[in-house]
Design a protein that fits this description.
Length: 332
């Protein structure tokens, strides 16, 4: 290899890494802002709380009345679109750079292509969003953004690690992979609560006013194709389905806490290589649980619920980082 070729590869690697990490920051902004837009659009934080919650649209005398879904400030929507557009350009650059680096050891081309596919999917979904009464739309936006964030973080960590920095495969690796699925599934449950406007279905802790699990409409509650019913005034009817969704989300939070606490504790005790990530997992886990409890205890303030979503994203990144650290260099 000539000096000129080596210089071009080093320069290309630097550009690729820069694109990935800038994209990670933009995805974090988009994910957090999307959560804020979604939650404020559902009525959280509105002046007439809680009567404005889940008020989608009303028609009075042929004129559209002001509803919670229309209380989102224009600057927030514009900022979201601008950041998302810039992200799309960067993702395209990542794909091109990854293709040029495809012969380098450990360089993935498939993951950048998947990220590009998710970007296109979310762009189409955001440009022409169907009715907010379709929960799968909200869930698709949330999970798509979280998946992009996780994959970009993986690419970024692999791009800054050399073969000597990456230790051989560790026993933590399968547990870390399971942890990714656990956290992702819990995020999906939280998204399903938001998508079904079920935030007010259970306002007490830890249960739901002694609501019996066995008597609930389970099939309806988790039907991805369901269309939310509304009153004549345009308010979403959550009914008992909302209670079931909330109860399952809380049960999932308990299981997630137990598993991630064990995994974070084990990682923190597995040596210097894993200690920082393990501690970060424990910190984000405790913050996430406290924010969730606080959101219910303080009647769902918009700031706390948005922070709950943001910390969930950071918890996901921490467990992805653990998977990276415990994986051999050939995994990409």
């Amino acid at each position: 290899m000539t000096a000129d070729t080596s210089h071009r590869q080093t320069s290309g690697s630097g550009l690729y890494t820069l694109l990935v990490f800038v994209s990670i920051m933009l995805v974090l902004i988009v994910v957090t802002l999307s959560a804020w837009l979604r939650l404020s659009g559902s009525g959280l934080g509105c002046a007439e709380w809680p009567t404005c919650y889940a008020l989608i649209k009303t028609e009075t005398g042929g004129a559209e009345a002001l509803a919670a879904a229309h209380l989102v400030p224009p600057w927030a929507t514009l900022t979201h679109r601008l950041v998302a557009s810039a992200l799309g350009v960067l993702v395209l650059g990542i794909v091109v750079a990854a293709w040029r680096r495809r012969k380098q050891p450990g360089q993935s081309v498939l993951i950048p292509l998947v990220v590009l596919g998710l970007t296109v999917f979310l762009s189409v979904l955001g440009y022409k969003t169907p009715s907010p009464l379709l929960p799968w739309v909200t869930l698709g936006n949330l999970l798509g953004g979280m998946a992009m964030l996780a994959m970009l973080w993986w690419l970024g960590q692999r791009s800054v690690s050399t073969a000597t920095e990456i230790a051989p495969r560790h026993d933590l690796r399968p547990w870390a992979l399971l942890g990714i699925f656990v956290v992702f599934f819990q995020i999906a449950l939280g998204g399903w609560v938001s998508a079904n406007f079920a935030a007010l279905a259970c306002t007490d802790l830890p249960g739901c006013a002694a609501y019996p699990w066995t008597d609930g409409p389970w099939r309806e509650s988790f039907n991805l194709a369901r269309v939310l019913p509304v009153t004549d005034a345009g308010a979403v009817i959550t009914g008992d389905a909302g209670k079931i969704i909330q109860l399952v989300h809380r049960a999932g939070a308990v299981l997630t806490f137990l598993y991630m606490a064990w995994l974070g504790w084990r990682a923190a005790g597995s040596g210097n290589r894993y200690r920082g990530t393990g501690i970060a997992m424990l910190v984000f886990l405790v913050l996430h649980i406290l924010l969730g409890i606080g959101a219910v205890a303080f009647s769902l303030p918009l700031g706390l619920v948005t922070a709950h979503n943001a910390i969930a994203a950071l918890l996901l990144l921490s467990v992805v980082n653990l998977y990276h650290l415990s994986s051999p260099s050939k995994i990409s």
